[in-house]
Amino acid sequence: MKQHKDGAYDYKQIDKLLHSPIRLSVMSLLASAEEAEFTYIRGEVGASDGNLTTHLRKLENEEYIEVEKIFRDRKPLTIYKITQKGIEALERYVEHLESLVKK
Asked: Rg of the chain's alpha carbons, rounded to an integer?
């Protein structure tokens, strides 16, 4: 069996923030969209309001996403966008997983 000295399989190298299924789903969705409303994200991801809010806040605190609260037709809307930092983190995460599979 071939030994790898680079530590690529060390679980600490995986971005724990993105490794959550809900957060990874949100980030993937936002990477493919210019922006998304909370209700749209909730419907696509399938999480409850409270659970999704918690995950979105973690991504926002890490500056992977940004939030904008607006009114449209007198209704409050919460809009989320992925940041450049978030795009780069997602790309690193995917590249790392791909490298593990290719070894």
From this structure: 16
Q: What is the pLDDT of residues 18-46, one digit of tens each?
A: 999 999 999 999 999 989 999 999 999 99
Question: Where along the chain do its domains lie?
Answer: 17-102
57, 22 Cβ separation under 8 angstroms: no
Q: Which amino acid is at 3?
A: Q
CATH topology of domain 17-102: Arc Repressor Mutant, subunit A (1.10.10)
* Whole-number Å distance between alpha carbons of 86 and 71: 26
User: Are the C-beta atoms of 34 and 40 separated by less than 8 Å?
Assistant: no
DSSP string, 17-80: HHHSHHHHHHHHHHHTSS-EEHHHHHHHHT--HHHHHHHHHHHHHTTSEEEEEEEETTEEEEEE
pTM: 0.85
What gap in Å lies between CA 11 and CA 4, rounded to an integer?
14
